[in-house]
Structures are given as C-alpha cells and as structure tokens.
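Work Package 3 (structural annotation) set out to generate three-dimensional models for the target panel prioritized at the project kickoff. During this period the team completed the workflow that converts sequence records into discrete structure tokens, so that structures can be stored uniformly alongside our sequence database. As a representative example, we reproduce one entry of 166 residues exactly as it appears in the project archive.
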Amino acid sequence: MDKSNVKETAMTQERNQKRDPAKRVQVVNVKIVKETSFLYANRYVRSPEDGYELFKEYLEEADREHFVVAALDTKNQPISINTVHVGCLNSSIVHPREVMKPAILSNAASIVVAHNHPSGDPDPSREDIKVTERLAKAGKVLGIELLDHVILGRTTFISLKEKGYI
C-alpha cells in the first residue's frame, strides 16, 4: 500500500468516527380547524351536477383561479372543503400532496376536486388534464378515489370524468 492510500484510509476512518451533532426533531400535532360551514342541500355528491352545485357557491365570486378539494365519506357525503391553491388570473399550480393532505386529515374515502376559470370558459387546458391524471394516480396509491374534477365557468361547467380523463 503506498503512502497516499494509507493517508486517505486514515482520513476516512477519522471522518467516520466524527459524528454530526444531534438533530432536534419537533413533535407536532396536525389538526384541521373549521373556518366556517354552509348547508349543502343535495347532501350527496353522486354526479358531476352535484359536484358543480357543491362548488358553485364556494367559487362563484372568485376573480382568480382557486383549486378546491372536497373530502367525501363512504356514502359520498361531503366532510370538508379546502382551498389548496389560489392562482393568478389564468393559472393555478397544484401538487398531489397539497390536494391529498386535507383528504387524509379528514379521513376521506374519496374526493372531488374543482377549480374555476375566471375567464368564464370551462374548457380544460392541457395542464388541467395532466393534474387530473396525477391526482387519480396518487389517489389510487393512497386509497382515496378521485371521483371527478369539475371546472367551473361563468354559467356552466365541465366534468373531466364525463370527458373520460378519469
């Protein structure tokens, strides 16, 4: 063994013996806190129209794109609604972890997601379709089924389930 290899081995052993200082780990309690509530007359979300009715009042006056998730129980009754992202005038960036987090915390069996198009035109963009596909895959892994993705326009809506994207 030459001198450079011996020196390198000694330095490696010395580094392995030194340890980083202890890392403090925070112990946390994660909770959902109710902000407000409203009455949902239909009680169940069993169709795209039901999803539209659930989200319509919630998103009607929004001037920017809002991406919202409704957590549903095993009978498709809404447990909670959570705005997971507020975008700009014509876009919203969402990630499956932000969408699934309130569903997990609500013990949801399934979810329906929605977002508005402030332009009034509910036609889905390529990004809307990609997000829907990613959410459906994430839901399968977590055991939380994505039932629909509803896009609200000014006076109408589009169901990505009805369009065959789910």
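The domain at 35-159 is CATH 3.40.140.10 (Cytidine Deaminase; domain 2).
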